[in-house]
From TrEMBL:
Domain named DUF302: residues: 55-117
Signal peptide: 1-19
Highest taxon in the source lineage: Bacteria
SUPFAM superfamilies reported for this sequence: TT1751-like (SSF103247)
The keyword Cytoplasm is annotated on this UniProt entry: no
Source organism of the structure: Roseovarius phycicola
A Pfam family reported for this protein in Swiss-Prot or TrEMBL: DUF302
Keywords on record: Signal
Protein name, per record: DUF302 domain-containing protein
Higher taxonomy: Bacteria, Pseudomonadati, Pseudomonadota, Alphaproteobacteria, Rhodobacterales
Length: 151
């Protein structure tokens, strides 16, 4: 059993993915923030989803003479996935569309980060946590961020 747990942990580390205690999934990227975000946006658009906004946090900070490590947020969605969640509970609209943050940490490592959809929606009474749209959102986020990470 210990070997199985160790092997599973090593596989996750090799893929550069980790989940933290606060339900944020982080994927280690091989490029810089701009290139990783470009790859993420291309993957999202290539999958047929809609990009609603690309927010440059560091650029915004610079406009008010403040410093912030390179950080960009992509806001995107697919009505085929999000609408059923909002039909089940209108408050799902507080969490949708989906968001992925690409940022550089204090050591210079670039990460993609997003909130696990199941955890994101788990406090809403109308949401069935086994709903197909949650599984699809989770799978899509994993595939899109994995592709953009460029491992």
């Amino acid at each position: 059993m210990k070997r199985l747990l160790l092997a599973g942990g090593m596989m996750l580390m090799a893929q550069g993915v980790m989940a933290s205690d606060d339900d944020i999934v982080k994927v280690k990227a091989s490029g810089d923030v701009a290139a990783t975000m470009d790859a993420l946006q291309a993957a999202v658009e290539g999958a047929g989803a809609t990009v609603f906004a690309r927010v440059d946090h560091a650029g915004g900070a610079a406009k008010v003479d403040l410093e912030l490590a390179d950080s960009q947020l992509l806001i995107f969605g697919n009505p085929k996935l999000g609408t059923p969640a909002m039909q089940d509970d209108a408050l799902a609209g507080l969490f949708l569309p989906l968001k992925v943050l690409v940022y550089e940490d204090a050591e210079g490592q670039v990460w993609l980060a997003y909130e696990d959809p199941k955890e994101m929606l788990d406090d809403l009474s109308g949401i069935n946590l086994e709903a197909e749209y949650i599984k699809k959102m989770t799978g899509a986020l994993g595939k899109l961020t994995g592709k953009a990470a460029g491992g």
